[in-house]
């Protein structure tokens, strides 16, 4: 079996839901159904910032040989208004460490967006931050030649029916959409490393 690590925050952890409802668990189900030889590990920690992820990365990488690594951090940086340069630096550190320790691992970066459209409200400074925050993920993906999930919360953000009562964390239905967003990029990559056909997504 090959090891697939999901490294993120509450969105990855499946905050407020049973572990089986988190998108990494849903992707494990697809892997099993399609007989792809991967074991998914969910290293999502609620409340985690990119700085926190940087600090705990070494202990995570020490536990497994890594064949694939999905990086989905940064949402809490955006909520806290952490400078984009700091988030970028921390995520680059994580990418470099994975490449250095596991040079053959397939890494994937998940993009995020600041959760509010502030432009019409006249919040020009915050709107500028939101624009920079969104751009940092694609810039990192291009710089490091990483496959890129453009927006992890695509189709879920702002949908009351797809989020918990807090309006921030996806519910079980929302997590299924997150799994699909990630699978569209991750699935073909894992297929390319095996001889097994991958059926079309549902």
TrEMBL record:
The SGNH hydrolase-type esterase domain, residue ranges: 6-177
Top-level taxon in the UniProt lineage: Bacteria
Gene3D superfamilies: SGNH hydrolase (3.40.50.1110)
SUPFAM superfamilies tied to this protein: SGNH hydrolase
CDD domains xrefs: Lysophospholipase_L1_like
InterPro entries: Ester_Hydrolysis_Enzymes (IPR051532), Lipase_GDSL_AS (IPR008265), SGNH_hydro (IPR013830), SGNH_hydro_sf (IPR036514)
Pfam entry (one): Lipase_GDSL_2
PANTHER family according to UniProt: SGNH HYDROLASE-TYPE ESTERASE DOMAIN-CONTAINING PROTEIN, THIOESTERASE 1/PROTEASE 1/LYSOPHOSPHOLIPASE L1
Protein name (Swiss-Prot/TrEMBL): Arylesterase
């Amino acid at each position: 079996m090959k090891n697939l690590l999901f490294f993120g925050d509450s969105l990855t952890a499946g905050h407020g839901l049973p572990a089986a409802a988190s998108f990494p668990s849903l992707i494990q189900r697809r892997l099993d159904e399609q007989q792809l030889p991967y074991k998914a590990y969910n290293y999502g920690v609620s409340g985690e910032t990119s700085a926190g992820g940087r600090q705990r990365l070494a202990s995570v990488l020490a536990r497994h040989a890594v064949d694939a690594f999905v990086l989905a951090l940064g949402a809490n940086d955006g909520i806290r208004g952490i400078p984009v340069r700091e988030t970028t630096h921390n995520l680059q550190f994580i990418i470099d460490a994975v490449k250095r320790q596991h040079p053959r691992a397939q890494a994937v970066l998940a993009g995020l967006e600041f959760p509010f459209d502030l432009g019409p409200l006249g919040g020009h400074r915050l709107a500028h931050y939101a624009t920079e925050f969104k751009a940092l993920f694609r810039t990192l993906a291009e710089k490091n030649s990483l496959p890129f999930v453009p927006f992890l919360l695509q189709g879920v953000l702002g949908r009351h029916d797809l989020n918990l009562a807090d309006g921030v964390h996806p519910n079980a239905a929302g997590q299924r959409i997150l799994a699909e967003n990630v699978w569209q990029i991750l699935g073909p990559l894992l297929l390319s490393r095996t001889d097994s056909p991958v059926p079309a997504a549902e």
